[in-house]
């Protein structure tokens, strides 16, 4: 048997990563820019059904979905929200105009297929020199948000200088202002938010550092941001209909890009219905260590036993943005390193030791294990200096 080819660098069907930024990922029978015949957040208009319209009006490819609707249309209130009332006609209109499982009904074409209005000229992005609006946008109430705001405020002067340098470099280059949603999923109560209670207790801060820098970068570049740290805020900004998440969004996605993490990705999939597939090319996943294509490709991962809680999303590998450049398959996002002024540089240079070692352990158990292993009551750093070479031959604090 010939082994299945690895999908590492196969041409992805979505083309360029930016292909869908200005519109949506078109698929099925749906229209990419509007859902004619239905209202927005205020509630959709009830479908105008023709008397006597039944299953015979459904094309062959829609009949399995029609059968499913007959049995399950009461399983989620969102179907009633879109006008489904148990009649064959309402099933057909829903399947053809909301979920796009079949082409529009011939007798609905003249009223439903309207010419979409011409898009308005896009606003241009202008570099910003103040981070105060961003600090207000980030909110408060969580230790993690307080930490992120402190970092952003402390680096304000350096962000402004960096923006000025980039503005001089780009000159008169025009940049469209993008509408961007930043949903920090790991800070939501629904995900458990294990980070906030540990901010002041030696817990991991790397993810919060990166998110603070991402927000600051997008802000100074001049883009329009929405920041959400709760599921309720996410649903409101996306236009999620009431119910259990089985129906598409009530309006076209109003964001060019969505930055989130794996928790947020799962929440979006759970509440966007089929719209998740339609708009997934606009998502950018902040993924600390990256995701290799073998774990991202659902079919390949399933066949080869690579399924994990965080994999098989079937995204373009470049949509995963890492903290460190682990793999060329993903995009490198990184984080900001501070710049020292002249006085600080001289102070560091004057006190710099010739030989240094960095000992890293983010959990107390890491240090306790080494102390117990060497049966020494000495502090962890003393233990590392005395016994580290025996535990790791490449580590010698004396060299």
Automatic annotation (TrEMBL):
Pfam families, A to Z: Glyco_transf_18 (PF15024)
Enzyme class: transferase
Molecular function terms from GO: alpha-1,6-mannosylglycoprotein 6-beta-N-acetylglucosaminyltransferase activity
Domain (Glycosyltransferase family 18 catalytic) ranges: 78-369
EC number(s) given by UniProt: 2.4.1.155
Pathway participation: Protein modification; protein glycosylation
Catalytic activity: N(4)-{beta-D-GlcNAc-(1->2)-[beta-D-GlcNAc-(1->4)]-alpha-D-Man-(1->3)-[beta-D-GlcNAc-(1->2)-alpha-D-Man-(1->6)]-beta-D-Man-(1->4)-beta-D-GlcNAc-(1->4)-beta-D-GlcNAc}-L-asparaginyl-[protein] + UDP-N-acetyl-alpha-D-glucosamine = N(4)-{beta-D-GlcNAc-(1->2)-[beta-D-GlcNAc-(1->4)]-alpha-D-Man-(1->3)-[beta-D-GlcNAc-(1->2)-[beta-D-GlcNAc-(1->6)]-alpha-D-Man-(1->6)]-beta-D-Man-(1->4)-beta-D-GlcNAc-(1->4)-beta-D-GlcNAc}-L-asparaginyl-[protein] + UDP + H(+)
UniProt keyword Ion transport present: no
Assigned keywords, A-Z: Glycoprotein, Glycosyltransferase, Golgi apparatus, Membrane, Signal-anchor, Transferase, Transmembrane, Transmembrane helix
Membrane topology classification: Single-pass type II membrane protein
Keyword hit for Ribonucleoprotein: no
GO biological process entries: protein N-linked glycosylation
Gene Ontology CC entries for this record: Golgi membrane
Subcellular localization(s) per the UniProt record: Golgi apparatus membrane
Family statement: Belongs to the glycosyltransferase 18 family.
Protein name in UniProt: alpha-1,6-mannosyl-glycoprotein 6-beta-N-acetylglucosaminyltransferase
Organism of derivation: Oryctolagus cuniculus
């Amino acid at each position: 048997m010939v082994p299945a080819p690895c999908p590492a660098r196969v041409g992805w069907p979505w083309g360029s990563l930016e292909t869908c930024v200005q519109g949506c990922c078109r698929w099925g029978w749906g229209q990419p820019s509007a859902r004619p015949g239905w209202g927005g957040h205020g509630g959709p208009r009830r479908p105008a059904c023709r008397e006597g319209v039944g299953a015979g009006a459904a094309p062959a490819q829609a009949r399995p979905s029609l059968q499913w609707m007959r049995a399950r249309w009461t399983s989620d209130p969102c179907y009633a929200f879109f006008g489904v009332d148990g009649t064959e006609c309402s099933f057909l209109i829903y399947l053809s105009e909301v979920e796009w499982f079949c082409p529009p009904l011939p007798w609905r074409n003249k009223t439903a297929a309207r010419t979409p209005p011409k898009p308005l000229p896009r606003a241009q992005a202008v570099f910003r020199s103040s981070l105060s609006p961003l600090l207000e946008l980030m909110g408060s109430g969580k230790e993690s948000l307080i930490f992120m705001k402190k970092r952003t405020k402390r680096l304000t002067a350096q962000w402004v200088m960096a923006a000025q340098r980039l503005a001089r470099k780009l000159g008169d280059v025009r940049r469209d202002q993008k509408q961007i949603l930043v949903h920090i999923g790991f800070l939501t109560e629904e995900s458990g938010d294990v980070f906030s209670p540990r901010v002041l207790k030696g817990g991991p801060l790397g993810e919060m550092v990166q998110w603070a820098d991402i927000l600051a970068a997008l802000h100074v570049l001049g883009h329009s941001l929405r920041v959400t740290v709760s599921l309720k805020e996410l649903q409101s900004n996306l236009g999620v209909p009431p119910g259990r998440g089985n129906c598409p969004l009530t309006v076209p996605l109003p964001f060019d890009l969505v930055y989130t993490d794996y928790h947020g990705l799962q929440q979006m999939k759970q509440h966007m219905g089929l719209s998740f597939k339609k708009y997934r090319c606009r998502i950018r996943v902040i993924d600390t260590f990256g995701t290799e294509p073998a774990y991202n490709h659902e079919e390949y991962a399933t066949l080869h036993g690579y399924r994990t809680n965080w994999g098989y999303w079937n995204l373009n590998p470049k949509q995963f943005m890492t903290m460190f450049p682990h793999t060329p398959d993903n995009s490198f996002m990184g984080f900001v390193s501070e710049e020292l002024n002249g006085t600080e540089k001289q102070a560091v240079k004057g006190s710099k030791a010739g030989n240094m070692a960095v000992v890293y352990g983010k959990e107390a158990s890491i240090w306790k294990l080494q102390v117990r292993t060497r049966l020494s009551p000495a502090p962890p750093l003393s233990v590392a200096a005395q016994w580290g070479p025996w535990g790791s031959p490449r580590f010698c604090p004396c060299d």
